[in-house]
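Ligand: iron/sulfur cluster. Inputs:
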Amino acid sequence: MRSSSSSSITPADPDSAFADLLARVQACTVCAANLPHPPRPVLRASPTARLLIVGQAPGRRVHETGIPWNDPSGDLLRQWLGMTREQFYDVSRIAIVPTGLCYPGTVKGSDLAPRPECAPLWHPLLRAAMPDIRLTLLIGAYAQAYYLGKRRGRTLTETVRAWRDFLPDYLPLPHPSPRNRGWLKQNPWFEAEVLPALRERVGTVLATGDNGGAPNQI
Ligand code: SF4
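Predicted complex:
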């Protein structure tokens, strides 16, 4: 994985170092020439987060509002998690970092793939700066490809069906896009089997430990 030479989080002043890292992310222009708009990284992260949600990349509405999962996909994800918006956006406990941080644009009405430069550049640094993460939700094929590599199945369905194999660190999920309603109907085991386990795991992860302290966020 690629990393930046000036990336270390100094133990002597971890809050300041975390804020510096977020400022560097915010100022990133690495793939600006390939984006349809000026870069606008959309993420939420704090050094006390215990749950990390890794999705695909911001869609247009998320790009415009700057709020991740602020769309129908986010509504369904919160339903899966059994969370209110307030709980979901508690950055002191839940970090949200997509595979590609900026809106990549669309082609023929479909969102383009996350920029390939992004995850190798920023995920290792952000992940290292959040040492209390106990569970990472891998939402969709891009997140699963980046984090699971060769461990994932031949298809997203295979990967999600084998969800137990990736615990306790990762839990792969399909993307909660309205476009995936057909997949959800064809795979009723997901709601019957995976969602209860998801809620139980997330509840456990968020219930334990001390999450006090002032959050940093973008
Ligand atoms: S998508 Fe990622 S690499 Fe590209 S400009 Fe945005 S933050 Fe930087």
